[in-house]
Amino acid sequence: MNKFYHIVTYGCQMNVHESEKIAGILSGMGYSSCEKIEDADIVVFNTCCIRENAENHAFGNIGMLKKLKKEKKNMLIAVGGCLPQQMHKAENLHEKFPYVDIIFGTHNLHNLKELIEKKLKSRKTVIEIDGGDGTVSEDDVPLRTSYPNAWVNIMYGCNNFCSYCIVPYVRGRERSRDSKKIIEEVQSLVNDGYKEITLLGQNVNSYKGDVTFPELLEKIAQIDGKFRVRFMTSHPKDFSRELVEVMASSPKICKCLHLPVQSGSDAVLKAMNRRYTTKEYLEKVAYLKDRIPDCTITTDLIVGFPGETEEDFNATLELVKKVGYSSAFTFVYSKREGTKAAEMPDQIPEEVSKERIIKLVDLVNSLTRAQSAQYKGKTIEILCEDYDEKRGLYCGRDEYGRMGYFSSDKNLIGQFVNLTVDEANGISLFGSIAG
Ligand code: 5AD
Ligand code: SF4
Asked: Degrees (nearest 5) of the Cα angle 262, 12, 393?
């Protein structure tokens, strides 16, 4: 009899890719994926805890399964990832939702098959949350769901302990994969027809294998075939000139860099334990722009960090204008229990943060719009990656990260397409295939 799985993923690209590994494990056990949660024999929640709303989302959706579980007693519910990796949250989950069958941490994903088998033999909730720093598991073969894009982990964990961030507590210490294994994986993805490879790590610049990150990137870009390489995330303190040179040297490496600045105020950056100043950040950006003038830069920004004054916030607005980001992820600071910033005085009232985020989003959007408008009439090469059902259009990104939409009678997913841009609307471009 067919058995079905349904995975609900929250959070970052790392989680999206880990859900592909969960899918790989489940399909190895004979499960197939299903669209509707009601049809599933096992539902896996792959959770995130980076901000409070990510946690609330997961708690809310797990809560909503109570009724379904009553009707469908044999359906298994598993909750894994960053949320239960915090022991008190795992206990909380167990107490609130006793019908959850399996609770596992970030370091226990590769053990999911055993956890399911254990649960099938027992009435008790199976809970496995390893502490420690985690290992590098090479055993999990992902079931990729995002052709022609593929994610490849190059490292796990984070040692930076930015004062607001929970990641180092739930993902353990930095550990890098063997460079040969990474290169082999990319080679086999290219052989299989994948056209865009994104190298993933919490801080790819601190990759420590037998080669440095720029050397690894260079080797990957030397693999034969037409494909693109992206990487994320880069911590500005470790972003080097050597990396810029490698980016400049290969047309395969996308001219698009995600360089989270978080704040434009030196006082706030210091309190955040970011270990760079705005001057150092801007110097790196200036070097990048000098060597690769058309490179786009994206970032992450937090408003309402404890103690952030109106001047600090204005400094962020100024820095955003100076850099001219092509887009940015903007966040209201969220207090995370266990982090240094949670203990800091002068937590910012919600109304103040709300006002600030609105101003910041407005500014970022205006920069994005202005840059999009410059695309009008130009022909760009995009990698067709999806079909947008709602719009009835195919879509894909150029190397700079811009999304372009177009109509086609043929399925062009996985192909590079030259698109002449007729219209720019916010972040999106609309056009037609160049003749
Ligand atoms: N509150 C708000 N934003 C946060 N981020 C990380 N921790 C928090 C927090 N406690 C943001 C940072 C990071 C991105 C992935 O999430 O901007 O770069
Ligand atoms: Fe969090 Fe800082 Fe590590 Fe990024 S570098 S994951 S923001 S601690």
From this structure: 105
